[in-house]
């Protein structure tokens, strides 16, 4: 979903067929996703980088202030930084058209560019001179990814050596670990591990099919997530006596895992970030939670100094969370709905963002309110989005109920009753039921706004009654 401004004349003779391509000018000004891949920290936890379409934005984690924009000619596919504490960090970006860019980020100037035939989806430097890197390519003509050792030259040239090529290009299906000495990748009923220094390889068989894998940055430790929400932590991966610890809290498949120091972070559809203590995974105090994130967790990043977590959510936002599991700051752009949820809105409307698409001013916040587009946002919410600033101004929670899938409630009953979070989940209101696999949600069908008054009409299909129900609300500022 992108916001497009249209300029042109709408006059003309009645019955005349309008040619949008010749009579209107279209300009994309906002609405791009900022969660297509994990965010990146720099200078410890002081700066956060994320991509918004073809633009990489650098923000202060203290104030949220935008420090710089790095403009590209194509959509950005990966970001990495050389975070050397002894000198200024450098930014490396890749784009879908095969370019790798080395930036002077303070001046927003590209220092060197390299052009590859295929898209680079990951890149990890293995020396302090930033000349050699392990690079993962996503070929345009093949399903599997390619893992190469690339030597970069300052004149834009490079040399490459293939290491491995038989694994999925999904970024959650492979990882590096142990100071980039280990490479692991998911197979059908197991996962493979390669010792990049000793060239040793071994398969590790998995009781349940692994859906994703992650590695410890400095230790020979791996973690996998299964389709049933189970997490397995693997120790001594190159020793004869392999060790595995299993922990289970998530009722659904885990969307993302990340490890650093003694912590393992996980998140998924439950809209909860879980922090596990690797020293006491299944103990009474082995995990802590950051709940009520209002959207599913998609990506998690831990800062190099472990002082901050960046959590990308399905609603197109990034939340900064401290180690004590409190939300410090949020970057929210155009609120996007999950694709499957959008498909389920057929009973209400074909578009997941209708609600009038009104472009108007409002004075709920101040006398100088910006022009906004008012559409559906999260499930049961209206969003006020400013396309000029590409910023979410505010959200109005119309239904004021939590969304808890039926499957989650039934599984919560079987889990440990000692956890306060599970007690909280049991008491939450079940917003809708699922029958025959259909995903239910509420859509804001229409609204009217004048001065400090807002009227909304919400619409949903009640399967138990086999009819569509509508309710209206009057809002006064």
TrEMBL record:
It comes from the Eukaryota. Keywords: Nucleus, Repeat, Ribosome biogenesis, rRNA processing, Transcription, WD repeat. GO terms for cellular component: small-subunit processome. Pfam families: Beta-prop_WDR75_1st (PF23869). InterPro entries: WD40/YVTN_repeat-like_dom_sf, WD40_repeat_dom_sf, WD40_rpt, WDR75. One of its GO terms (molecular function) is RNA binding. It is found in: Nucleus, Nucleolus. One of its GO terms (biological process) is rRNA processing. This is WD repeat-containing protein 75.
């Amino acid at each position: 979903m992108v916001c497009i401004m249209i300029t042109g004349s709408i006059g003309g003779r009645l019955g005349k067929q309008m040619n949008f391509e010749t009579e209107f000018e279209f300009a994309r000004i906002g609405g791009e996703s900022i969660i297509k891949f994990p965010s990146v920290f720099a200078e410890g936890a002081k700066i956060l980088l994320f991509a918004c379409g073809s633009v990489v934005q650098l923000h202060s984690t203290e104030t949220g202030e935008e420090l710089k924009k790095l403009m590209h000619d194509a959509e950005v596919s990966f970001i990495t930084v050389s975070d050397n504490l002894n000198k200024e960090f450098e930014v490396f970006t890749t784009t879908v058209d095969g370019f790798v860019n080395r930036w002077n980020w303070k001046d927003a100037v590209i220092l060197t560019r390299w052009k590859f035939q295929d898209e680079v989806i990951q890149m990890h430097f293995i020396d302090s001179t930033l000349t050699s890197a392990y690079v993962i390519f996503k070929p345009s003509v093949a399903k599997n990814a390619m893992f190469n050792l690339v030597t970069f030259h300052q004149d834009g040239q490079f040399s490459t050596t293939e290491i491995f090529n038989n694994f999925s290009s999904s970024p959650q299906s492979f990882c590096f670990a142990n100071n980039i000495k280990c490479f692991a990748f998911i197979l059908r009923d197991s996962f493979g591990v390669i010792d990049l220094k000793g060239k040793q390889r071994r398969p590790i068989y998995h009781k349940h099919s692994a859906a994703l894998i992650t590695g410890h940055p400095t230790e020979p430790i791996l973690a996998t997530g299964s389709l049933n929400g189970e997490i397995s932590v693997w120790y001594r991966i190159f020793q004869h006596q392999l060790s595995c610890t299993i922990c289970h809290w998530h009722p659904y498949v885990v969307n993302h895992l990340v490890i650093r120091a003694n912590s393992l972070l996980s998140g998924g559809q439950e809209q909860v970030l879980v922090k596990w203590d690797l020293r006491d995974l299944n103990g009474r105090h082995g995990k802590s939670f950051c709940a009520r994130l209002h959207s599913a967790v998609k990506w998690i990043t831990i800062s190099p100094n472990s002082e901050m977590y960046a959590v990308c959510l399905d609603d197109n936002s990034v939340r900064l969370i401290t180690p004590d599991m409190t939300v410090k700051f949020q970057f929210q752009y155009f609120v996007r709905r999950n694709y499957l949820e959008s498909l389920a809105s057929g009973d209400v409307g074909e578009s997941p963002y209708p609600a009038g698409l009104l472009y108007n001013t409002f004075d709920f916040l101040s006398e100088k309110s910006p022009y906004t587009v008012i559409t559906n946002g999260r499930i049961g919410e209206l969003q006020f989005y400013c396309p000029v600033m590409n910023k979410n101004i505010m959200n109005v929670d119309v239904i004021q109920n939590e969304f808890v899938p039926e499957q989650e409630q039934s599984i919560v009953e079987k889990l440990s009753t000692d956890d306060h979070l599970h007690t909280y989940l049991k008491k939450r209101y079940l917003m809708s039921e699922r029958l025959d696999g259909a995903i239910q949600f509420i859509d804001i069908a229409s609204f009217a706004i004048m001065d400090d008054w807002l009227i909304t009409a919400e619409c949903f299909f009640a399967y138990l009654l086999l009819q569509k129900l509508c309710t209206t609300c009057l809002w006064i500022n």
